[in-house]
């Protein structure tokens, strides 16, 4: 069964494995399969679920709401996000303006079928809206009882510090950041993690398996497997393209004997690796089949010895991306 950690400097506990439905619900899998997978997650002890209004242009929230209907609300930690354009994508259908945030939370609650979410997150930083306006709107969402905590996704160290200062003034519980993080993508380690530790924020990390590359199923010199994420534009194929290099795939295959020695599958090793970072509260993992959930949960509570971590670093060598400057390139400078 999955273990739990505190989210930031708060009293909220979340499951070490968070069930995410970015490319699955409303897109990659049908509703009945999605619901079965969510129920498998609940059976495995996962209580934390992450979605966003933009996933499948709001359909993912609807499916997750259906899947969780009838569950004890107090026993769940439900996360969603706001920023990317949704609906007809008019001039105010995206960003972090007061208008979009307040309309966004109402839409998300309706689709999810709940009165509140546990964590409401800014999906990216909005350079076109004053941060003061954004944080005041988030504070009002909390005061209205529509969200219990506030978080962000893919913000830089400086943006986190500025937001934390305003959150303190506004007395709003700002607890987390949701960045990409994996053995292959470690750009948050240079600045974002130290700033977060200083501010009392946790990371809820996405793509701990590097879009599936760390599963080992993509082999050097071989065509990508039929039906894999790399062949499906709706499942984020463009995200994985940059990782399908011969040097990366060759290095990843060196992880298999390490995983075997630990008694883990390669996906389990990848998830366990991100959880070794004490600033990581949870690893966000999706699934398209119930059996994948049980496998993912086996990574919770695993301790990787220092020698194993050293062996992983040696295996991957210089294919690991560590440049902290890349955290400044994630949020669009103008609204999409």
Description:
This protein has twelve helices and ten strands. It has 336 residues and is α/β, with parallel strands linked by helices. An eight-stranded parallel beta barrel has the order 3-4-5-6-7-8-9-10, surrounded by five helices. It has a two-stranded antiparallel sheet with strand order 1-2. β7, α5 and β8 (174-177) form a beta-alpha-beta unit. It is globular and about 50 Å long. The model has no long low-confidence stretch (mean pLDDT 94).
Q: How many individual domains?
A: 1
Low-confidence stretches: none
What is the tally of beta strands?
10
Rounded average pLDDT: 94
Q: Supply the number of helical segments.
A: 12
Which structural class do the helices and strands define?
Answer: alpha/beta
Distance between the termini: 40 Å
Summarize the structure.
The chain has 336 residues and is an alpha/beta fold.
Keywords for this structure?
K_chnl_volt-dep_bsu_KCNAB-rel; NADP_OxRdtase_dom; two-stranded antiparallel ribbon; 336 residues; TIM Barrel; alpha/beta; Aldo/keto reductase family protein; oxidoreductase
């Amino acid at each position: 069964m999955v273990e739990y950690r505190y989210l930031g400097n708060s009293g909220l506990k979340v499951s070490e494995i968070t069930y995410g439905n970015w490319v699955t619900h409303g897109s990659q899998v049908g509703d009945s399969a999605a619901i079965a997978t969510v129920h498998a997650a609940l059976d495995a002890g996962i209580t934390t679920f992450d979605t966003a209004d933009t996933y499948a242009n709001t359909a993912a929230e609807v499916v997750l709401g259906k899947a969780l209907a009838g569950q004890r609300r107090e026993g769940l930690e439900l996360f969603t996000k706001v920023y990317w354009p949704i609906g007809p994508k008019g001039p105010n259908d995206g960003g972090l303006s007061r208008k979009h945030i307040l309309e966004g939370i109402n839409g998300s609650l309706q689709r999810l079928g709940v009165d509140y979410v546990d964590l409401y997150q800014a999906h990216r930083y909005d350079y076109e809206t004053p941060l003061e306006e954004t944080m005041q709107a988030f504070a009002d969402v909390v005061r209205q009882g529509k969200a219990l905590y506030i978080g962000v996704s893919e913000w830089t160290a400086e943006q986190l510090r500025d937001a934390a200062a305003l959150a303190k003034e506004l007395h709003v519980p700002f607890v987390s950041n949701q960045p990409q993080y994996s053995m292959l993508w470690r750009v948050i380690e240079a600045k974002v993690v130290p700033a977060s530790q200083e501010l009392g924020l946790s990371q809820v990390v996405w793509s701990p398996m590097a879009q599936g590359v760390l599963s080992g199923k993509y082999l050097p010199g071989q065509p990508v497997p039929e039906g894999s994420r790399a062949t499906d534009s709706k499942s984020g194929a463009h995200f994985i393209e940059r990782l399908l290099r011969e040097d990366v795939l060759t290095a990843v295959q060196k992880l298999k004997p390490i995983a075997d020695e630990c008694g883990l599958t390669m996906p389990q090793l990848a998830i366990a690796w991100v959880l070794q970072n004490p600033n990581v509260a949870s690893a966000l993992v999706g699934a398209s089949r119930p059996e994948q959930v049980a496998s993912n949960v086996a990574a919770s509570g695993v301790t990787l010895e220092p020698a194993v971590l050293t062996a992983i670093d040696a295996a991957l060598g210089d294919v690991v991306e560590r440049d902290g400057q890349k955290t400044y390139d994630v949020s669009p400078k103008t609204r999409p």
